[in-house]
Design a protein that fits this description.
The structure holds two protein chains of two kinds. Helix content of chain A is 29%, strand content 9%. By secondary structure, chain A is an alpha+beta fold. In chain A, strands 3-12-11-6-7-8 form a six-stranded mixed sheet. A two-stranded antiparallel ribbon of chain A has the order 1-2. A two-stranded antiparallel ribbon of chain A has the order 4-5. In chain A, helix 1 crosses helix 3 (113-126) and helix 8 runs antiparallel to helix 22. Classes of the chains: A alpha+beta, B mainly beta.
Amino acid sequence: MRSTARRYTYCNHASIALLAGLVMLTGPLTVLGHADKPHEDANAAPIILAPGYEKLDFPAPAPGSYALPVIGEAGNGNLLTSSNQSTTLHTLLTDKISVLSFIYRACDDVNGCPLATYVLHQIQQKLAADSALHDRVQLLSVSFDPVYDTPEAMQAYRDRFSDSPINWQFLTTASTSELDPLLEAYDQSLSRRDDGSNQINHMLRVFLIDESRQVRNIFSSSLLHADTLISDIKTLVLGTTANTPSVNDNSRSTAQTLVAAAVPVETTTAIQLPSNDARTGYADGSYTSNTKAVIKGGTSADLWQHATSPILGLPALPGASDMSRDSIELGKQLFFDRRLSINNTFSCAMCHIPQQGFTVNEMATAVGVEGRTVKRNAPSLLNVGYLSRLFHDGRESRLEQQVWSPLLAHNEMANPSIGYVLDKIAAIDSYSEQFERLYGQSQPTMETLGKAMSDYQRSLVAGASSFDRWRYGNESDALTSQAQLGYTLFTGKAQCSQCHTLQAESALFTDELWHNTGIGYTRSMKQHDEPHPVTLAPGVTLMVDPAVYADAAEEPPNDLGLYEVTQNPDDRWKFRTPSLRNVALTAPYMHDGSLATLENVIEFYVRGGDDNELLSPLIKPLKLSQDEQSALVHFLQSLTSPDVPMLVSDALATPVGDVRSARLH
Amino acid sequence: MLAGLLSTCLVLIPGLSQADETCMSPYMAKIYGQEDFVYVWTLGAVGVGDEQDKLVTVDVNPSSDTYGEVVHTVSVGGRNEAHHSGFSDDRRYLWAATLDTNKIFIFDVHTDPSKPVLDKVIDDFVASSGGVVGPHTTYALPGRMLVTGLSNNEDHGGRTAMVEYTNSGDYVKTYWMPTDDNLNGAVKSGQFADGYGYDVRALPRRNVLVTSSFTGWNNYMMDLGKLMGDPQAMTHFGNTVVIWDLHTRQPKKILDVPGAPLEIRCAWEEDHNYCFTTTALTSKIWLIYEDENEEWQAKEVADIGDASTIPLPVDISISADDKLLWVNTWNEGMTRVFDISDPFNPTVTYDKTIGQQVNMLSQSWDGSRVYFTSSLLGNWDKKNDNTEDLQYFKAYDWNGSELEFQFELDFLEANLGLPHQMRFGSYALYQ
């Protein structure tokens, strides 16, 4: 391990006073140097000199290699120059890069005002040779102490440090009432010590201010050093302005990559969404991150045109004739607005994440406001406009009505009432204007809100997959032979299409009916208290007894499926058949997200589901070889639409609605 | 009575004898003697009192008439997932952050240290920062606060950023954690560049910031039982520690520290160029250190109990002399003291069960007093019917070899909520 050489000088209080005097005009006017350092006194409590007195222990950053963000506007106040002329700080700051320190003459803390003066003097000396900076850089020291630090006293300082082409002004104020606005503006809290001394408690801060009177850095005793300050000064000189995107800015256009992905793909290439934080191979330790930055920005698309045009493999979109571009746009804004929840944390998109197939890939079942448990996997919204039965239990029939359930559910967006939602939206100007324009009244209603939000969801149409081109487009080479074999199995031996149905001219891959596969039964009726593997880190999976975390676990919610709607005991554990379009993008699977991969799903059906007295008679053990199972996966992957990246990019072009008010107080 | 002294210019030089309150920013004014108050940032809980987050002020000065009592509370509205808090560099304000609603509550603690007053609320953290969710650590820099995030408003996952504010609460800049496609000049030294965040600490003498990585909103807000049973969710934890250039705020090196490294505590001695962190899931102590070639490295140096029993190490605290590291394991309700005289070989020298669960600990500057609170996260906390030693504040003296119990406050019985992070207050700081 690297051991830093002891760099700090230790000294006793008398020595400190001497050292302080060197830059406080109460002692010899020797410029500080190592030879002037006080001697250590073993009997005195050691004090460490600030790093600013020493050689910098690391390389100063290269000027211009980094950005100095604008911290704020430099404050103003009335000042007296050392020649007793009235001026203002803003006057002095105009068109100069300034290093501003606050000091007072009597300060006896070597790591306080004397440090600031020492470092400013170092800057003055080191920049003297750089003639280009002489007119651009100045040093300003303002006194905290208008009573003792008169203009005459400050003139002594100025005289002392006048031998450099870098101008250094020493300033004071006419009274404490003139000083106060400066203290306020520079967040300097002062208190005079009550020990009879003339000492002032304050916090050392030195400010770097640019030519536009904007604070660009603030230094304390532990950070103040001439070399880093000079790097900052030169960075400002080089014109690294606040408007220059810094290396840390994440605002980047990913539209190109997304749009590129939307170009019709090679028949053999699976369409994938930008997997922002994929964790492939995590359990077996082969995981290597390929993480993408949080994406900001995308390219807006004409979703109306998209959704109202014929799309290969899909039937005509119900309700398309009632949609408009404006209602889709309004619905989209609402869909991404986190203010549509009780505590401004949840938009629809937090559970229907565009980049994750308009569902959530990163958890089995959803969580809502305050992390409340939702017992079912968030369904993908791709092609939701074709469905006549919504939710996993099919309890809702129209999207316009459906949108209200998550808005009001206690464990989803948790709004307390319909009126609360409508009033909250109406209070946001940009929304009320759109509702007025679209529906003739600025106050949204249950119907108009439902209409707008459902129109956006309805527009998320994604067909024309490789399969569609092969099956409905007569492109015989659009599907790989493996996928073609998968299709044969899907519609034949594997009997998938009994529920995931296809028609002659189109396919939604759902019969919109309910079936008991046993997944729900197992969850309700079997014990789940055996030790199970838990992956704690990449390649680190241990068997964990649920008892060790049982105290911290809520009772898992039960789920009886369609029975919860009908109360018919025959409907226990029945769930709606989901569409399989774009299924490769929507892991994990089943109504409870309990199966991680398509391979797992096929294995589940091969073994005949989970046996129970109400198991659907359509579910039977299948005799499928590994190759045949693999072929089915290939077929399912061929159902991904090349339009999804466009829908994702369009979604990313929509600003996320977050609270933008300034302060509550 | 009070030894909390300001130097004349309130100057703080990292290095000799500047410790805790050993966990705070080296830029911070410190209480060197007896603290008067502990400010406990407390989560609201359904069915408990007024059900909302609050700052609870506990009198901890033995010479006070109200020693051992709650002397003040400020309810702030809402259950925001109150979590960590930190003072501004001048220690006049306490920034108390919240992981769910992303509000930052700024309390005036200097006007009357016994009665903090809510001064400002930053309620546009997400919008201002460009989508950062879950403000966690509020860390003082000169005139500014550096706030680490845990998540983002795009997917509530773990990719996130640090956000800089002025002391007055104005947004300055967002620094995204480096990801594979956006390394920002950092070196990916191992397998991972996950972009996750959690804690931050500085070693100014080496111009270094160190950050760790936990998990996103989805996981930290989720019921712990649901999380442990969800293999997909369990893969979304952080596996990295990032070394940053303190001055330029540029990431320099990404170190693999698998298993969710949480709190970072850096050594104080001027030649101790290292920090400790513990991994929540794999239950290990990791040393983050600068080697002979001035390269920063990460090394696993000790186990904390048996990882398969999910001890869940949480808060850690380093002593002012860099000799001891306190490590709390939340699920075990236990605190351990590791001798870290040799930082490469920490050894357990003491352990004690504090309660059914234990999260935060804070020790006095001289290490003679240690305080504990119980709550980890609203939906991870234990839900037992038996509430004894479940949600508490406990005060102990440390005599160098064992903890001596002083007093406790039952936060459920007192209808306060779930106590989380503690910060010390003192009259002497402002005299």
